[in-house]
Amino acid sequence: QRLYALIPAAGVGSRSGAQGPKQYQRVAGRRVIDHTVAAFLAVPAIAGVGVVVAPGDTQYHAADERIRVWHVGGETRAHSVFNGLLALSGAGARAQDWVLVHDAARCLIRPADIERLIDACRDEPVGGLLALPLPDTLKQATGQQAPPRVQATVERGDKWLAQTPQMFRWQVLYQALAARQASGFQGVTDESSAVEALGERPLLVVGSSRNFKVTYPEDFAMAQALLMHADA
Ligand code: CTP
Ligand code: MG
């Protein structure tokens, strides 16, 4: 089975405070999305990289023959991923091939992290994702009152923070997202949640705290600092 990367990059970055979408901001000498795509191109097992941008977006051009750019971004991230899956299939992906969905905004991903996920999931029937065990003590708040108060401390040993890439068989992910299309992909914030709703149990593979998603204004400086130190 072949492995493809699918990079949703059709968001507007409303929380980032930047002028224009965050994936096109420059950090450490090149754009966020260029760092992201380069990490996947550096993994020999990846057969191709599909990038989903917004219709009418003229800011991204494939700089390598293994890259395809599709102007099929949707209303939500899940919609963009679903459209990207269809485009991947049009480009030759088969039902049992693997798709690694990765946020364009996670530009700190390293080839070694991607390879660890691939090695862990290759013999899985369905797939898995990079995730991090919770680093901090977890609190349950009381109802909706303001200011919020602690109701209880939650056992955190079995709680994980989901990252990307999330690696699934093309057909499994297609089925999972197709089932959510009618409801506008409501509540689908990652691929795994849609796959879980099919009754599957994706594998959790330990990621890295470095692989955070550039979301808020201060995240650009953090990304810049980490990108300048490859071993950080
Ligand atoms: N994304 C997408 N299509 C959308 C929304 C998001 O392809 N309709 C992509 C983003 O470009 C990003 C990834 O999904 O690479 C993760 O989403 P997020 O961090 O939420 O990015 P934005 O939606 O752009 O940011 P914000 O939510 O702050 O507006
Ligand atoms: Mg968003």
From TrEMBL:
Say what the protein does: Catalyzes the formation of 4-diphosphocytidyl-2-C-methyl-D-erythritol from CTP and 2-C-methyl-D-erythritol 4-phosphate (MEP).
Q: Which InterPro entries match?
A: IspD, IspD/TarI, IspD/TarI_cytidylyltransf_bact, ISPD_synthase_CS, Nucleotide-diphossugar_trans
- Give the UniProt keywords, A-Z: Isoprene biosynthesis, Nucleotidyltransferase, Transferase
Q: In which pathway does it act?
A: Isoprenoid biosynthesis; isopentenyl diphosphate biosynthesis via DXP pathway; isopentenyl diphosphate from 1-deoxy-D-xylulose 5-phosphate: step 2/6
Q: Which organism is it from?
A: Tepidicella xavieri
Instruction: Name the family.
Output: Belongs to the IspD/TarI cytidylyltransferase family. IspD subfamily.
Protein name per the record: 2-C-methyl-D-erythritol 4-phosphate cytidylyltransferase
- Molecular function as annotated in GO: 2-C-methyl-D-erythritol 4-phosphate cytidylyltransferase activity
EC numbers for this chain: 2.7.7.60
Q: For the site Positions MEP for the nucleophilic attack, which positions are given?
A: R156, K213
> What biological-process GO terms show up in the record?
isopentenyl diphosphate biosynthetic process, methylerythritol 4-phosphate pathway
Question: What gene codes for this chain?
Answer: ispD
Reaction equation(s) it catalyzes: 2-C-methyl-D-erythritol 4-phosphate + CTP + H(+) = 4-CDP-2-C-methyl-D-erythritol + diphosphate
Q: Which Pfam family, just one, is annotated for this protein? A: IspD
Instruction: Tell me which HAMAP family the record gives.
Output: IspD
Q: Which PROSITE patterns does the record match to this protein?
A: ISPD
Site (Transition state stabilizer) at R15, K22
Q: Which CDD domains does the protein's record reference?
A: CDP-ME_synthetase (cd02516)
